[in-house]
Design a protein that fits this description.
alpha+beta, FAD-bd_PCMH_sub1, 3 domains, four-stranded antiparallel β-sheet, Uridine Diphospho-n-acetylenolpyruvylglucosamine Reductase, domain 2, FAD-binding PCMH-type domain-containing protein, 16 helices, Vanillyl-alcohol Oxidase, Chain A, domain 3, 510 residues, Uridine Diphospho-n-acetylenolpyruvylglucosamine Reductase, domain 3, globular, seven-stranded mixed β-sheet
Length: 510
């Protein structure tokens, strides 16, 4: 299957963090959040507790990973929907006084649910009603309406929150042309552990500005707004062998061309459980279809791309096309991107790897064999091509280190629905971990690397020593992990901003 498509803006968003435990009672926590603290609003406009009739619907509204929608998932003591920065500052004070951990939720796309779950008593700060709670897909129509010759290298997934996207690096269909979302951040507003607000990178220092763009900003404080640089844009049957060639072509071709490979198991017929794998090549080209055809005929003629396979459209409409591939309704109206409720919610678990050398035909065949052990629609592999502009940044330019030398990122995911039995869920998770083990000789090494925006608690959560934390920290950040720890020591020596895979605190590291 094949398919192709041929200034500055200030955006605000809040990220999540948690406070360390402190001997104190939780019973008076909600009493701390009293009406007189919230100027010009009533408590019920801001604070939702389990006795509030809207509590459950608000809690569930942006749990994007339905794994964490079960009755056994811990629920917050309260949900706070701040209207301005002062409400956030009040929440800091109350949470710290009563030793309640804070999780701040934006888009809710955290792979491990860290923005809305915790093993200890916690409160959620939810920005669903705040102007600063900006979804990436909601930002794109506004960009297009202001100027149809500019765009932003955002995500291909609908309703991703701007803050989480940027603070992990942020990849999308324009990254080979313009780099990551985080590569295009030029300034921020930031709130520290004391509730002090800093305007501009010069006020927080270059080390912290570096750490926030790709190093999980939630480890250091709260980014109140991001100032981003917009980029110019213009229009313009042998699956195993195809994928084998794709691995080098996609990373080395014209940087205006982004092609990802999507690989899923399918049943050949509904009657017979005879399986195969379906490979779809999905692309975006910044140029005209005729030029794309010349590139493909010269570099990848085996794919057999024709003019009829291509759809010429504006860049902003191409975002609808990519969103439709992941379950977002297809259509012509850009208003679809403004409706956050249309984004699909799933039960899922994901892992990522980086591939530096093409996986051999034999290696690919081993992957197909394992894919066919899964139910149709229950597993997916995505090959996200690197190269192009991504090769031009050094590994230490921002905390995101996965630059030159990578052919593609390999995403591995399993999915299920509400009717899936617990035993099948466990079987799917076991299968995913088995696939990850199989991939060991085929992916990056020393360290084996992963993408922090698909965080994976299987990699480890232990922070008893720098060496233990490095077992997962270097997989996300390589050598940048040490610098991130050093910034943490300077910015947050009390480790107030903490979660299971936040940047740890080791003051003795030199």
């Amino acid at each position: 299957m094949k398919t192709c498509i041929s200034s500055m803006l200030s955006l605000a968003y809040f990220l999540f963090f948690i406070f360390p435990n402190k001997a104190s009672s939780y019973s008076n926590f909600t009493e701390c959040l009293v009406a007189e603290h919230f100027r010009d609003v009533t408590t019920y406009d801001v604070v939702y507790t389990p006795v509030n009739t809207s509590f459950n619907s608000l809690l569930q509204s942006r749990i994007q990973n339905l794994r964490f929608l079960s009755a056994s998932t811990p629920k917050p003591l309260a949900i706070v929907t701040p209207k301005d920065e002062s409400h956030l500052q009040i929440g800091y004070s109350c949470a710290y006084e009563f030793s309640v951990q804070i999780r701040i939720r934006g888009g809710g796309h955290d792979s491990e649910g860290l923005s809305y779950t915790s093993a200890v008593p916690f409160v959620i700060f939810d920005f669903i009603s705040a102007g600063s709670m900006l979804m990436l897909k909601m930002a794109l129509p506004g960009i297009a309406q202001k100027n149809r010759t500019i765009g932003f290298p955002g995500s291909t997934w609908p309703s991703v929150g701007m803050g989480g996207f940027l603070s992990g690096g942020g990849y999308g269909s324009l990254m080979r042309k313009y780099g990551l979302g985080a590569d295009n951040v030029v300034d921020i507003q930031f709130m520290n552990k004391n509730g002090n607000i800093y305007i501009g990178r010069s006020s927080i220092g270059e080390d912290l500005f570096w750490a926030i763009r790709g190093g999980t900003a939630s480890s250091y404080g709260v980014v109140l707004s991001w100032k981003i640089k917009l980029v110019p844009r213009t229009l313009e049957q042998n699956a195993t062998q195809l994928v084998h060639k794709y691995q080098t072509f996609a990373a080395k071709t014209d940087r205006n061309l982004y092609i990802r490979a999507k690989i899923t198991p399918v049943n050949l017929t509904p009657e017979v459980r005879n399986k195969t794998v379906l490979v779809s090549f999905q692309s975006l080209f910044l140029g005209r279809a005729n030029r794309l055809l010349k590139i493909m005929q010269k570099g990848f003629p085996e794919l057999g791309l024709t003019k009829e396979d291509c759809h010429e459209m504006s860049w902003i409409k191409s975002t609808l096309w990519f969103a439709g591939d992941v379950g977002f309704p297809k259509g012509e109206s850009l208003n679809l991107l403004m409706n956050r409720d249309l984004a699909p919610k799933l039960y899922f678990k994901a892992k990522t790897d980086y591939v530096e050398e093409p996986i051999s035909v034999k290696g690919l065949e081993g992957m197909w064999k394992r894919l066919m052990q899964q139910e149709e629609g229950a597993a997916e592999l995505l090959m996200i091509p690197y190269g192009g502009k991504m090769d031009k940044f050094t590994e230490s330019a921002i905390p995101f280190p996965h630059r030159a030398g990578n052919l593609y990122m390999l995403y591995q995911g399993v999915y299920w629905n509400e009717n899936t039995t617990v035993s099948i869920q466990k079987k799917s998770l076991k299968w995913l971990r088995s696939l990850s083990k199989y991939l060991t000789p085929h992916v990056s090494k020393n360290p084996r690397r992963s993408y922090v925006n698909f965080n994976d608690l299987d990699l480890g959560v232990s922070n008893k020593s720098y060496e233990e934390a490095s077992s997962w920290g270097t997989r996300y950040f390589k050598n940048n992990f040490k610098r991130l720890v050093q910034v943490k020591n300077d910015i947050d020596p009390q480790d107030i901003f903490h979660h299971e895979q936040s940047i740890p605190l080791f003051p003795s590291i030199s």
